Input
Amino acid sequence: MLTISQLAAHAGVTVRAVRHYHQIGLLPEPERDQSGYRVYGAAAVVRLIRIHTLTDAGVPLARVQELLDADPAEFADGVQEIDKDLRAEIRRLRDTRKRLARLAGGEHLALPQCVVDYLDRLRGMGVEERYIELERDAWILVAAQVPHLIEAIMVSKHEQLDDPDIRKLYGLLNGALDWPHDDPRIVEFADILERLAIRAEQAGELNALTFDDRFTDLLDATMLESAPGARKLLAILEERGWKGWTRIEHVPPR
Output
């Protein structure tokens, strides 16, 4: 007859593990000797080795009992089911690792790949990082609002980057966040925006993507807070008959 420590040594587990298996019902409590100590026989060693083999193979403790009591066919089915669950868990962990690797890049946090690619293209055009960070935050808000549309929006944004006026606009952006309200470049900026608005209206593409008033106000406020010259820019555009930023309206010139 074996003591609990001898049993554990024969099966290659700890005494603490044996006690845990007793507690959850995997290993039946044995008889005790006259001194009150547990005593084990060969059957306990065999069962404990089987438990240890299953758990060491990755079988969850919750499934060990059914496999211990299963006939050969049930055992094979149970192992296949556990293997299926493990493969699904492996795929989940791989996906998690991929997401974590992308998050290490910073911009992948709350942004789909298509937006990250677009921001990288802006960098390739020489747009300064301060502005890209501002646009990144705006796209985080937009992607959360219309996740089903963001891929199509990015396709359109890439197409727009082929427009000479758009490229000139982005060329002006470097340093624009620090322009004072009377900087003459604001007028040049307004000229380009007006041309783009006219072409979009003629093509029936003005405000092709619409948001509710509250979200529109949030995006507009973000833009207005970003640069000293932002209010001056909107005032110039309104004098020419264009009101708004996120949602542009053609209104009678002031």
In short: The chain is about 65% helix and 0% strand. Strands lie at 242-243, 249-250. The chain has two domains: 4-103, 113-250.
